[in-house]
Write a structure and sequence with these properties.
By secondary structure, the chain is α/β, with parallel strands linked by helices. The radius of gyration is 23 Å and the shape is globular. The chain has a 7-stranded mixed β-sheet, sandwiched between helices. Helix content is 39%, strand content 20%. The protein folds into 2 domains: 283 residues, 3-Layer(aba) Sandwich (Aldehyde Dehydrogenase, Chain A, domain 1); 190 residues, Aldehyde Dehydrogenase, Chain A, domain 2.
């Protein structure tokens, strides 16, 4: 944990180190003059004006990435050399950890303790892990007939367009940029217009770490402008996106309408968290359920937003979650003691409040929260919200809210729990609490989700893959499997 106090963070926030330019071909570029304001959800104040990239800026960034890939040194370096640059990027992220954490908190409202201890830790570890992995990969030589030699080599896929959201701006950028660079690809990164400042800083740090010009480019701008242009660009070979399912569909269309680039999608979720009566510790299960839905203001695609709890323990578990929700400290995200900060902005806060109003209209019971708080600060704050008596057909059960709103549903047996859990178009993650080993294995296999946590939630490290099933997307971030998105397999058959 950073030793910086609330007063010190407030002082630093008056003059934060922020960059509002694109980073193209190894240098900052102001673009064509168009800008947009980055508003802090902490207090509604403008942080800075940022270059608004469109087709011209995306074309320039893709051209730089294309040159760097086709004729530059990066794809041709020994993997160990690429790894050393990624390790240097990890070192620079560590050196700038406090200023980057401040940037993340100011641009998207995350509590400073979470930004410093969780967001930056994840980004640093990601670059370090792929830097260490870069020279550990091997090609194949399958056994064939004695008069032939077969070689299967893994080659970098080319220019990667990476489009990432605002909820974990550095973590999710790192999950895409680090393995793509380790594989030998070049990258054009398009961050959310809500959180462009940390991504711009990442581009600068990449150049400082020793990435050749054009290897990592950052274009700031909105989805219809910069994002669409990147998705349609004929010189982008791979598009990696994290965000909503609706926008993911657009990227698939862009691929079909352009060069059939590979599109890898990590999309939304409506993750079930199943608590059986034989959970090893019901109080811990309830505490984890509360933490999971309120962490990062509930702005997580894996948030356990549907709590499926056995009817025999539902009242006990729900009461404990409500108690914890009421005690949760919502406040200034620059205060290290704050547990839940601001939602990303006024528009998003309005959408979450609309979902809450619909839940009450449809007949769910509001147990706590559901109201805007700290409005005099100018920020976008919401009280932690819990509904019970939620039906499986209500919008609370079906639609991703992306906020601190928990829906509690009950069941009477394991089969019903599995049916309820799978009754969603999404399949990103799930939780299960049980002491029965057979139940743990059988239910985990039955759940249609890319990740199942048993007797925990949001645990794991970079050795395991992350991604979804169904309309939660395809492909995997993290682990060595992430490199499959950024490489091509080539077969060479040599007749002896």
């Amino acid at each position: 944990m950073s030793p910086v106090t609330h007063a010190e963070w407030l002082a630093r926030a008056k003059t934060p180190t922020v960059y509002g330019a694109h980073h193209i071909d190894g240098r900052d570029e102001p673009g064509g003059g168009a800008t947009f304001a980055v508003v802090s959800p902490r207090d509604g104040q403008v942080l800075t004006d940022v270059a608004d990239g469109g087709p011209a800026e995306v074309d320039a960034a893709v051209a730089a990435a294309r040159r760097a890939f086709d004729t530059g040194p990066w794809p041709r370096l020994a993997p160990a050399e690429r790894g050393r640059v990624l390790l240097r990027m990890a070192e620079l992220l560590e050196e700038h950890r406090e200023s980057l954490a401040l940037t993340v908190t100011l641009e998207m409202g995350k509590p400073i303790t979470d930004a410093h201890d969780i967001e930056l830790r994840a980004a640093i570890n990601t670059f370090r892990w792929y830097g260490q992995l870069a020279d550990k990969l091997t090609d194949e030589s399958p056994h064939t007939a004695p008069d032939a030699l077969a070689l299967v080599t893994r080659e970098p896929a080319g220019v990667v367009g990476a489009v990432v959201p605002w909820n974990f701006p550095l973590t999710l950028a790192s999950w895409k940029v680090a393995p793509a660079l380790a594989a030998g690809c070049t990258v054009v990164l398009k961050p959310s217009e809500n959180s462009p400042l940390s991504a711009s800083a990442l581009g600068r740090l990449g150049t400082e770490a020793g990435l050749p010009p054009g290897v990592l480019n950052v274009v700031t701008g909105d989805g219809p402008g910069a994002g669409r242009t990147l998705g349609l660009h004929p010189d982008v070979d791979v598009l990696a996106f994290t965000g909503s399912t609706a926008v993911g569909r657009h990227f698939l269309r862009y691929s079909a309408d352009s060069n059939l680039k590979r599109v890898w999608l990590e999309l939304g979720g409506k993750s079930p968290n199943i608590i059986l009566p034989d959970a090893p510790d019901l109080e811990k299960a309830a505490a984890t359920a509360a933490w999971g839905i309120f962490f990062n203001q509930g702005e997580m695609c894996t948030a356990p937003s549907r709590l499926l709890v056995h009817s025999s323990v539902a009242e006990q578990v729900t009461d404990e979650i409500v108690r914890r929700a009421r005690e949760l400290r919502v406040g200034d995200p620059l205060d290290p003691a704050t547990e839940m900060g601001a939602l990303v902005g006024e528009a998003h806060l309005g959408r979450v409040l609309d979902h809450i109003g619909t839940g009450e209209t449809e007949g769910a019971r509001l147990r706590t929260g559901g109201t805007r708080v700290l409005e005099t600060t100018g920020g976008s704050y919401l009280s932690p919200t819990v509904f019970d008596q939620v039906g499986p057909d209500m919008r609370l059960s079906r639609e991703e809210i992306f906020g601190p709103v928990l829906s509690v549903l009950t069941f009477d047996d394991v089969d019903e729990a599995v049916r309820l859990a799978n009754a969603t178009e999404y399949g990103l993650a799930a939780g299960l609490w049980t002491s029965n080993l057979t139940t743990a294995h059988q239910v985990s296999r039955a759940l249609k989700a890319g990740t199942v946590w048993v007797n925990c939630y949001e645990e794991g490290d970079l050795t395991v893959p992350f991604g979804g099933m169904k309309q939660s997307g395809n492909g995997r971030d993290k682990s060595a499997h992430a490199l499959e998105k950024y490489t091509e397999l080539k077969t060479t058959w040599i007749q002896l």
